[in-house]
């Protein structure tokens, strides 16, 4: 039995229209995805000022950083910090000293999803200084991981990482790191848990509890410029790096070009208090779209 195929001009027109509409929708979606992808690509540039004031002295880092976002999930940066310090410990000269720190490079990964947002930063510092207060004379390595989930106006988060010593890098917005005005060499794990509360679109407050866990031999190096904190008496470097405490902050992002953070840190182990200030300028956003890089 032969099937009876009856072709009608109207059905052909409708079919052609449906195909054309589907093709147009698919093409539009692909074009939109490509445009969104391309919008996430481009150069980034930041200028950061990070400062700390405690009973050990004052500490300022001026950090110039440039990078490139390959997509919304992946980017890389290079930077050079400049340190300005003024120790106020007994027996140390109370004068300002400065030096260029070890240059660094990092790669960033960001994966946001409805369950939990994840970000990771791997940082490498290159030793260019003599062994002393501003460097250990060794390559520095730091692997930082960040997890968060926003629920209405509250964003709980957990940070965890490992490193071969205490480093400083602009990729991390952790006030307790600014209270550590010294460099060490040795395996070190860190963990931090806390939350941010978003008061407005541009203002948030937060707090956290942090802990550092050294393992194996730990070394610190003195030099012409003294560390803020060195072992005294029967203390070892492991004693001063095995730290834990809490921090609080207020974060401002008034425009896409500027961000600022005022913080307070209390070290329970070292019985030390510090006030911190971070002021950053997203220079790349002055000329193009806002950077895809997140400031944790």
Strand content: over 45%
Mean of pLDDT: 77
Strand order across the biggest sheet? 1-2-3-5-6-7-8-10-11-13-14-15
- For this entry, what is the oligomeric state of its chains? single chain
CATH topology value of the largest domain: Porin
How many strands, which pairing sense, and closed or not: the largest β-sheet?
Answer: 12 strands, antiparallel, barrel
Number of spatially distinct domains: 2
CATH class of the largest domain: Mainly Beta
Shape: globular
Distinct helical segment count: 3
**Share in helix:** 10-25%
Q: What's the gyration radius in Å? A: 25 Å
Tell me the CATH architecture of the largest domain: Beta Barrel
- The total strand number stands at 15
What is the terminal-to-terminal distance?
Answer: 72 Å
- Looking at this structure, what is the CATH superfamily of the largest domain? monomeric porin ompg
Task: Briefly summarize what is shown.
The protein is mainly beta. The protein has helices at residues 9-39, 175-178, 237-241, and strands at residues 42-54, 57-69, 74-87, 97-100, 104-111, 117-125, 140-148, 154-163, 184-185, 188-198, 203-214, 219-220, 244-252, 258-267, 272-282.
